[in-house]
Inverse folding.
């Protein structure tokens, strides 16, 4: 009973906020016209929080095995056996991109593995601020694994800010050092194929992950494993193995299920509309531009 | 010390996250100005300091390589020469009549010359390599290994033909033969008698061509037999549907990841 009450509490604040927003009780305190966006974010967060708490309370949560994540440890192990280094490319964007943050988070886990296996890690960075964050993340991971002696600052270094100069620099590192495992995790643009094809030519096991939907096909073609779409953002939760983090993935999956149901509903209503059984233009609900509300 | 590295960092991270998000929904000009301008400026200032650290790191790394004659140390000499030359042309030697500072954008300055005649051709060379990499990647992707790879090959060929002028010149009967061939290639394993298979294939082609002549497809070609129309359909329907599915997944992933970071649950970035 107590736990049920606690779980219900999660929805009270979002519900109240939504009521205030929708009925404008707070006299223009909220930007008008963004109700749907606000509701979607609130609803998604409430569902995710609900499953995080469920996982925290000890509920067993199944997470389907994702081959790219399982292959990460394998790749580091392979590099150790071959006596070659592990190359980690955190993309070319700054820390203002969530992809780069995810990339740095995954780097922490990979650094933990290289510390455990005593493999060499090499992280060339394109943005100085990312280099600092990556260094901190690697240092902490080596410390956590009890191997601070294996860490040195030069394993995470700056190359250049320019996109193609960076690609040339990383390609040079690949061709000279011949790493056995290459990870591409972050935000990538046109340089993705230049990097992945070079990695493929040296015979390295390549694992990519990005939120740039336009670069996913290139990685799929040239890499051994790819974290597609939301898998990339779920990787850190998956690798941490912590129940509450995995709970958030389940919550995310439920939000996706609601999206699918909603899409199906819209398709059915649109078909009825087309056949003149209904006269509701459901697409009007979605014609909300968050930026218009801000004007 | 641990408080500054852990708790304070989490508090700052969560607070800034919530403030940035609320800027979209709360009708308060001060808040919106902060999220749109001030917060961006904060980031730019911190990134500016980090840029200085980046340059120092680059110098330190390559100087060490040269000093200790580490493997491939010769390349570091070129890196340092490039680095120093650009610093000289940027800060010390101008080469034009314009003042220092604006000279970076003056086409008579030494810095601009270096940019135009060394940096840009090198960057273009790297970009041009992409064409060859696309060709080798396509070759690998189009190798027929399974059903998915075959589908990829067929749609890839149709897209390539549809995007070039020659695609529009391909007559309907060639497309009919292409479709019949694809169909027979799929069912080939089911028909064991080669004679029956060959005759069925030939008669199907003849039948479709006669049908096309009777229905006057030369003048009114159905969209399914026009390569540019097929290309447009592939791009507008299956490709868009797949891309949107991935986009929805990415958006949900971003929401969940941001929520984990804002609520302080995702602490891996701090090394936890």
């Amino acid at each position: 009973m107590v736990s049920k009450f606690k779980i219900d509490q999660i929805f009270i604040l979002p519900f109240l906020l939504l009521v205030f927003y929708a009925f404008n009780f707070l006299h223009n305190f909220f930007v008008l016209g963004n109700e749907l966006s606000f509701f979607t974010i609130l609803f998604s967060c409430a569902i995710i929080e609900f499953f995080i708490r469920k996982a925290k309370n000890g509920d067993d949560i199944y997470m389907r095995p994702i081959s790219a994540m399982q292959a990460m440890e394998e790749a580091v192990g392979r590099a150790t056996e071959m006596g070659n280094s592990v190359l980690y490319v955190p993309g070319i964007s700054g820390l203002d991109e969530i992809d780069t943050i995810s990339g740095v988070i995954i780097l922490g886990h990979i650094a933990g593995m290289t510390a455990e296996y005593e493999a060499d890690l090499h992280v060339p960075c394109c943005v100085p601020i990312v280099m600092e964050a990556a260094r901190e993340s690697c240092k902490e991971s080596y410390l956590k694994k009890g191997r601070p002696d294996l860490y040195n600052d030069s394993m995470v270094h700056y190359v250049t800010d320019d996109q193609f100069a960076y690609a040339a620099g990383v390609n040079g590192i690949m061709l000279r050092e011949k790493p056995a495992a290459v990870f591409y995790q972050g935000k990538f643009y046109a340089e993705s194929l230049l990097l992945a094809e070079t990695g493929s030519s040296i015979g390295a096991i390549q694992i990519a992950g990005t939120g740039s939907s336009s670069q996913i096909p290139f990685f799929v073609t040239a890499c051994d494993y790819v974290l597609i779409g939301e898998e990339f953002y779920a990787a850190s939760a998956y690798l941490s193995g912590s129940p509450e983090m995995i709970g958030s993935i389940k919550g995310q999956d439920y939000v996706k299920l609601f999206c699918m149901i909603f899409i199906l509903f819209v398709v059915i209503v649109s078909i009825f509309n087309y056949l003149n059984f209904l006269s509701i233009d459901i697409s009007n609900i979605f014609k909300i531009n968050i930026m218009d509300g801000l004007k | 010390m641990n408080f500054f590295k852990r708790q304070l960092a989490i508090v700052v991270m969560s607070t800034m996250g919530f403030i940035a998000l609320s800027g979209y929904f709360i009708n308060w000009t001060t808040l919106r100005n902060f999220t749109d301008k001030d917060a961006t400026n904060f980031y730019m200032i911190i990134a500016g300091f980090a840029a200085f650290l980046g340059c120092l790191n680059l110098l330190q790394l390559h100087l060490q390589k040269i000093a200790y004659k580490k493997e491939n140390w010769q390349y570091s000499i070129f890196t340092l020469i490039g680095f120093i030359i650009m610093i000289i042309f940027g800060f010390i030697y101008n080469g034009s009549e314009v003042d220092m500072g604006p000279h970076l954008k003056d086409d008579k300055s030494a810095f601009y010359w270096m940019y135009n005649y060394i940096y840009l051709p090198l960057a273009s060379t790297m970009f041009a390599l992409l064409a060859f990499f696309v060709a080798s990647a396509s070759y690998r992707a189009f190798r027929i290994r399974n059903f998915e790879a075959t589908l990829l090959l067929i749609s890839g060929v149709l897209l390539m033909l549809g995007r070039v002028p020659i695609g529009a010149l391909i007559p309907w009967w060639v497309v009919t033969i292409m479709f019949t061939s694809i169909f027979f290639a799929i069912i080939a394993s089911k028909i064991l008698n080669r004679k029956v298979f060959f005759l069925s294939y030939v008669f199907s082609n003849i039948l479709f061509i006669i049908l096309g002549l009777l229905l006057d497809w030369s003048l009114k070609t159905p969209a399914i037999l026009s390569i540019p129309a097929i290309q447009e359909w592939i791009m507008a329907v299956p490709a868009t549907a797949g891309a949107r599915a991935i986009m929805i997944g990415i958006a949900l992933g971003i929401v969940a990841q941001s929520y984990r970071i804002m609520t302080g649950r995702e602490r891996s970035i701090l090394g936890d």
In short: Chain B has a mean pLDDT of 89. Chain B has two domains: 2-92, 136-240. The CA atoms of residues 142 and 156 of chain B lie 8 Å apart.
